[in-house]
Amino acid sequence: MRSRLSDKTGAAIRRLRIARGWSLATLSEESGVPISTLSRVELGQNALNYDKLMRLCRALEIDLEGLVTREAEGAAVPSGRRSVTRAGEGAAVRIGQAEGRGAAADLLSKSFSPTIADVTAETLEAHGPAVVQPGEAYVLVMSGAVEFHSHLYAPLSMAVGDAVYFDAASGYVLLARGGPARVLLVNTGDSAAGS
Q: What is the pLDDT of residue 73?
């Protein structure tokens, strides 16, 4: 599993670079770190080795402790990331008995992972074991009717437009009611839902 340290380091470096009014090219010239490496680090796609980290600290006139402090500040900086998933495209995923397509599979270190899933199981027996995932999740019914099960709450009947936000680590089951249904499932974190 990737460390989130690279995301925070990249964001801190970007904030420091922008505060100086420097482009990536200027920081590259000042530090000797290639532009392509800097870009990937700022986007959270690469981590830095110690040598490059120290070169960047010297160029930005900040010590390692100061950089760590900047990481902790965590002010959101637009990264310019974008991923388009066309209808019917996306990485195939399975959530219990539901099959779906995950979006933005090309992006690393996402804050959330969206999936469009087709719910077909109509009974707990047909579904099998509850889906357990780290973090929290959100389900929005896009078509059909769904019954949401969790051992923490009574079953919840959901129609088109209904949504539920819940603790996915406690386990859950989505059942179709009266025929197949389609849902938008959004999980926190970078892992594909149920895969």
A: 56
